[in-house]
Design a protein that fits this description.
68 residues, single chain, mainly alpha
Length: 68
């Protein structure tokens, strides 16, 4: 299982120390930009799922491109 945690900077070091002390836990630090990108991709996938289920209305790609 993978878990993404958002921790205040002043608390991160102590929590990472505890986690690294557990033999069954691997830790890897990622940049804020990468974490934001992952969150945005997750949201996009959730929106696509809602569109496929008919719970959210999709916009035509042409309309989206016209806004740019």
């Amino acid at each position: 299982m993978r878990v993404l945690l958002d921790i205040k900077d002043n608390k991160a070091a102590s929590l990472l120390e505890v986690l690294r002390g557990l033999p069954y836990v691997k830790t890897k630090t990622i940049s804020d930009e990468k974490a934001l990108l992952m969150e945005e991709v997750k949201e996009a996938v959730e929106n696509l799922k809602l569109v496929r289920e008919g719970k959210l209305k999709a916009r035509p790609a042409k309309e989206l491109l016209d806004e740019l």
